[in-house]
Design a protein that fits this description.
The protein is an all-alpha fold. It has one domain. It has three helices and no strands. Helix 1 crosses helix 3. The radius of gyration is 14 Å and the shape is globular. The termini are far apart.
């Protein structure tokens, strides 16, 4: 993996993570680095899922793959917010 590939993965992860945060309603109190990590993981898993369904390469923009990635990022953001929200509650 080249430096350019790593930088592109981080940029794509940030964009996918940000789109995932936009989909999840309410305020998310998670740091930007965690959003980026969620986005990178969601981008990778979304690509794997698109390949599993046979829609990894289509003409033009891969809308279905992008949809998989954003939905996975939204699920990831919701899970992290839910877990961190529960941890902050005292009984």
């Amino acid at each position: 993996m080249t430096v350019t590939g790593i930088v592109m993965a981080l940029i794509v992860g940030l964009i996918i993570g940000a789109l995932g945060r936009l989909v999840v309603p309410g305020k998310q109190n998670i740091p930007i680095w965690l959003t980026m990590v969620i986005g990178v993981v969601a981008a990778l898993l979304g690509t794997v899922l698109a390949r599993a369904f046979g829609v990894e390469s289509t003409g033009g923009i891969d809308w279905i793959e992008l949809l998989f990635q954003v939905v996975l990022a939204a699920i990831g953001v919701a899970l992290v917010v839910g877990i961190s929200g529960r941890r902050g509650v005292t009984r």
